[in-house]
Amino acid sequence: MNTSLRISKGCWSQLKYALLIPTFFFVFIFIYTPFSFQQDFDLASRSWTFHLLMMTCMMVCVLAITRTVFYFLYKYIHFKWWHYVMWCFGEVLIISLFFALYTSLFHIHEDARMPYFTALPFCFKFTLLTLFFPYLVSILLRIIANKGADIENATKAPDSPLVKLYDEHKRLKLTIDASAILYVAAESNYICIHYLENDREKTYMLRNSMKSFEEAASRYGIIRCHRSYFVNPRHIKLLSRSKEGLIYTEFTVDGVDKVPVSKMYYDALAGSL
């Protein structure tokens, strides 16, 4: 749960959830009508199927917004699996809030409308129990895909020692030998590649995100050591700890600045040395 989340590229990879999850919700409720749904929403003026359709449309709108927000946040924030699980739980809660509002407007009990905060626990229960299965399946499929990619990268040797780096517009900007890279640092909307040329440190600024470098880093054995840094273990002499308890890398090349190592990534980096 504390490992990094990796999702498919492209906005559609997230927006499909705005269609698939509500589809499951509609079909499941329509066929099985669990949690007394049919009785609770079978009003004289409209059938329960009308209310089911309306609530499904509400779910589509909520998920379209939340998944679009998630897609753009994913570009800039390093998500862990437990972050994603909490995000899914938050989506269920938001959907429940809207369902409760809808229920309080249309559900009549003893000639009086159901109060909002009375409807909320009921809506949260049947929403959570109904959507638990599709969310669980989607998470398991993503974990399997991530594990499969890890195994493939571990067993597949790079076709070339050269790393090709592209800018945010997918234009090739730099081709460099992976063994020459010292470390990569995030600087605002850029990544700064520190590399060796004729035994001297040089830098190259590339307009792109750190996430864009993750695939190349995994392929060529360059390891994330901090939210804002990747390092090449080939050039690390040792890991040192300051008086304040902070961990830094010391490079085999003189004059190269130390790079911070966060506790989250320490074990992975130390195991590669």
What report would you give on this structure?
- With 273 residues, the protein is of the alpha+beta class.
- It is 49% helix and 22% strand.
- The chain is built from 8 helices and 12 strands.
- The strands form 4 sheets. The protein has a 5-stranded antiparallel β-sheet with strand order 7-6-5-9-8. Strands 10-11-12 form a 3-stranded antiparallel β-sheet.
- The chain starts with 11 loop residues before the first helix and ends with a helix.
Low-confidence stretches: none
Strand percent estimate: 15-25%
Q: Report the principal-axis shape.
A: elongated
Radius of gyration over C-alpha positions, nearest whole angstrom: 25 Å
Q: What structural class should be given to the helix and strand makeup?
A: alpha+beta
Continuous helix count? 8
Largest sheet, described in full?
5 strands, antiparallel
Distance between the termini: 25 Å
Total DSSP E strands: 12
The succession of helices and strands, N to C, reads HHHHHEEHEEEEEHEEEEEH
Main sheet: strand order: 7-6-5-9-8
Mean pLDDT: 83
Q: Considering DSSP H and I runs of 4 or more, what fraction of the residues is helical?
A: 40-55%
